[in-house]
Amino acid sequence: MIARAAPPAEPRARARALRPDLLVVLAGVALVVAAALVGRRLVAAGVDLFLGFPPLLASWAPHTGPGTVPALVAAAVVVLRGPALAERLPWRPLLLAAWTAAVLWTTALALVDGYRTGIVARLTTDQEYLHDVPRVTDVRTMLAAFADRILTDQAVHWTTHVGAHPPGAFLIFVWLDRIGLGGGGPAGLLCILVGASAGVAVAVALRALGAAGAARAMLPFAVLFPGAVWVGVSADGLFAGVLAWGVALLAVGATRDGPRADLAAVAGGLLLGSALYLSYGLALGALPALAVVALTRRVRPVLLAAAGAGAVVGAFALAGFWWWTGFERVRVIYAASIAESRPYAYFVWANLAALMFVIGPAVLAGLRRLAAARRAAPVAVAALAAAGVAAILVADVSGLSKGEVERIWLPFAVFALAATALLPRAHARGWLAAQAGLALLTNHLLLTVW
Q1: Is 387 exposed, middle or buried (0-12, 13-18, 19+ CB in 10 A)?
Q2: Helix (H, G, I), strand (E, B) or coil at 382
Q3: Between β-strands 446-448 and 58-60, what pairing exists: parallel, antiparallel or unpaired?
Q4: Which conformational region is residue 63 in: left (phi greater than 0), alpha (psi within -120 to 50 degrees), or beta?
Q5: pLDDT class for 450, splitting at 50, 70, 90?
Q6: What is the DSSP letter of 183?
Q7: How far apart are CA 420 and CA 284, in angstroms?
Q8: What single DSSP character describes residue 3?
């Protein structure tokens, strides 16, 4: 009688190791379902959430578009070839390939809604930046009087997104218009080009901090980032790119020596200082920057970066805009906005449900592994992912982010991508497919505002 061979232990061990990851993902799904059900009950009870599809600012609208096929093709290529290419390609060509793929993926998702609806019209509504661009005749005069036009209880005031942010983002779109690239098309494409590079910047930071293998492992996940649904097109995607490159250049400057390292540190400081004038919430971008400082413990690059950031702050102050004055006035208009009717008790946890659509199941699983690994995880991965999560949690409990966090938290969510480096190589394709599937379903079943 011939004895049958015992089934291999390795597949069973892999399945057992996968179970805790799947349980965390199921918990995320349960959170989303709970937020949707409770949100609908609140709306039915007369509470003004101003969300068409709680917990997201979106509406149910199953559809396809010219971006459907390109998005499917891009997802398939990255799922099937991404992990292998990330291991084999030389570093710089890999970064270029990842950024190009992320741009194509993000653009294709935006084009699911059509070029006009998905790209051109996103930043041209009466609430958006481009609405006020024709009102600027002189940049210096605009900056000097910017804070005076924030409060909305006066005849002349900025539109919603211009007044609710520092003038940095508005300046970008004004300058774009001045060089002949006005309108929603160029503005939307700029957001995609810069926003799609954010994950690449996080990989650059990881490699500079000594986690080269982790940087390569996370790049395919940076390409198929579900948050790309809102990177294309929202100004917050642009903000994510600026903050991420600020942190990356600081990491490069803090881990190398010589003139190029000094230049990188100064450039990182300039970008980090600029981030403060893109969104008041990006003050929390100090957390990933401080994570880099804590890991490297070098004084010279910190001083150089501080000089770069100080130059930005000084330039805006000399032009007549004081960040703190603007922030205090924005708190006034925020308190009187739709935030007044949005209950904190709901959004303090429903915000996290909205975040699930941005980070996707792979990041959730990676964060679980990070928590379980503790000191066994690469320190750079732990530091950057934890800094991104910490920024999100602080923003959440502050009460200054009640709803619409699927775009507002993009600059912090990209740092959580670092946790995907902890996912087993054998499961990479499955997790990538899950990330792509979530983004495709979101964009094809819902019509998002951004």
Answers
A1: buried
A2: helix
A3: antiparallel
A4: beta
A5: confident
A6: S
A7: 22
A8: P
Write the pLDDT tens digit of every residue in 354-370.
999 999 999 999 999 99
- CA–CA separation, 354 and 32 (whole Å): 7
Q: Give me the pLDDT at residue 158, please.
A: 96
CA 72 to chain centre: 22
Confidence of residue 180 (pLDDT cuts 50, 70, 90): very high
Q: Which has the closest alpha carbon to 236: 204, 198, 270?
A: 198
CB 429, CB 80: distance < 8 Å: yes
pLDDT digits (tens, 9 = 90+) for 88-108: 999 999 999 999 999 999 999
- What pLDDT is attached to residue 6? 47
DSSP 248-286: HHHHHHHH--SHHHHHHHHHHHHHHHHHHTT-GGGGGGH
The token pair that represents 218 in the structure block? 């996370």
Q: How far is CA 66 from CA 69, 113, 327, 394, in A?
A: 7, 8, 41, 39
Q: Which residues of 37-52 are buried (b: 16+ CB within 10 A; e: fewer)?
A: ebbeebeeeeeebbbb
Burial class (CB in 10 A: 0-12, 13-18, 19+), 299: exposed
DSSP character for 447? E
- Using alpha carbons, list the distances in angstroms from residue 359 to 257, 261, 385: 35, 32, 12
CB 337 within 8 A of CB 19: no
Structural tokens at position 248: 């990356």
CA distance 333 to 339: 9
SS3 for 40? helix
251, two tokens: 């990491």
Encode burial over 127-138: b for 16+ CB neighbours within 10 A, e otherwise. Answer: ebbbbbbeebee
Tokens 């009460």 label which residue? 399
Sign, CA torsion 176/182/186/191: positive
